[in-house]
């Protein structure tokens, strides 16, 4: 029999994160490496073979799914109005723009969000964190970007929650974002964090982005002008999509 | 501008992203089904696959209306049913299995985007249904990972191995 493995401590994880950050020092890395061992779930779930580059101008991936006004309803962007009562927690408004790498607005595209409630609990069968569910909060929203690439949500600030990656693993508060571009290659699923969260340094998911500047791009900014009097605090967060846009489609239509 | 970094989709997207009929892109065509496996050969029950493809004539224009919602209740009422949207989204089930019902793409392949808990940045692959010059350029032992196996009339098997001996070929579009 193999002796039991001692539980992973925060110190173990911190050491691993520090080593991996040091190894990448000075290199600009936008996306996290898929094999970031401090995030234990990544260990068996990343390819070990190099990805095969594709340079095919006719590729399916240079176009993308199309969404329209019937794919959303007016209530979808206000997560505080989807039930009979008011959800608990600090109401927030989150706004920003979806842009491509040239800074051009990504228009008419679906932005989907999901998040935990104010207590740090998801409305998901497998979330057994003993924090209360909120009968007035589901935590799912969607909208289409406007002509300037803008999106806007009204919601509540999600709570931190434990997640068993190691002893005392707590995720910083975050909102999950799923975004499309004009090309399938621009697809992005990411998370927006809240400024000055004391949990940042301890979280292997955020720290998987090894470049400090890139990590900062995941943190929304408090924006007093977006705060609504007597109602909500405002956060601004812009999203920049990677990958080639659908230039061949634009020429052909 | 520098891109926003990717983060994992997992583990609790299950109440947010999947939608009823997400794998039913079209009826009366083909079914593609299979499993997603991790590096230990275990099925991955918390993966999410997205599909994007041309229609049988090769047209990639798609059409809006995949996720149509009832304007009164907000509930998903599903696809338009008249236009081919070309987009599918399917979570793996508790067994790590998925199924996609669609039409044979006119240009020979379906593009796949793979999300999962533990996957910090999504992966792209392709499902091919026959010979293709792109496949010819791959080493023979890896080529087969991109080709759907015909199980019976109009039913194809396509497994995705995130890691391991049978690791699927994943693509980088630069």
TrEMBL record, chain A:
UniProt keyword Amino-acid biosynthesis present: no
Positions of region (Disordered): 1-40
InterPro entries: Intradiol_dOase_C (IPR000627), Intradiol_dOase_core (IPR015889), Intradiol_RC_Dioxygenase (IPR050770), PCDO_beta_N (IPR024756), Protocat_dOase_b (IPR012785)
Gene Ontology MF annotations: ferric iron binding; protocatechuate 3,4-dioxygenase activity
Signal peptide positions (record): none
GO term, biological process aspect, one: 3,4-dihydroxybenzoate catabolic process
This protein's UniProt keywords: Dioxygenase, Oxidoreductase
Location of the Intradiol ring-cleavage dioxygenases domain: 94-122
Ranges in coiled-coil conformation: none
One Pfam family per UniProt: Dioxygenase_C
Biased composition (Basic and acidic residues): 12-25
Gene3D superfamilies to which the protein is assigned, alphabetical: Aromatic compound dioxygenase
Family that this chain belongs to: Belongs to the intradiol ring-cleavage dioxygenase family.
UniProt-recorded name of the protein: Protocatechuate 3,4-dioxygenase beta subunit
Organism: Nonomuraea polychroma
Lineage of producing organism: Bacteria, Bacillati, Actinomycetota, Actinomycetes, Streptosporangiales
From TrEMBL, chain B:
Taxonomic lineage from the root: Bacteria, Bacillati, Actinomycetota, Actinomycetes, Streptosporangiales
Highest taxon, organism lineage: Bacteria
Keywords (A to Z) from UniProt: Dioxygenase, Oxidoreductase
Database matches in NCBIfam families: protocat_alph
Entry protein name: Protocatechuate 3,4-dioxygenase alpha subunit
Family annotation (Pfam families): Dioxygenase_C
One MF term in the entry's GO annotations: ferric iron binding
InterPro entries: Intradiol_dOase_C, Intradiol_dOase_core, Intradiol_RC_Dioxygenase, Protocat_dOase_a
Family: Belongs to the intradiol ring-cleavage dioxygenase family.
Organism expressing this protein natively: Nonomuraea polychroma
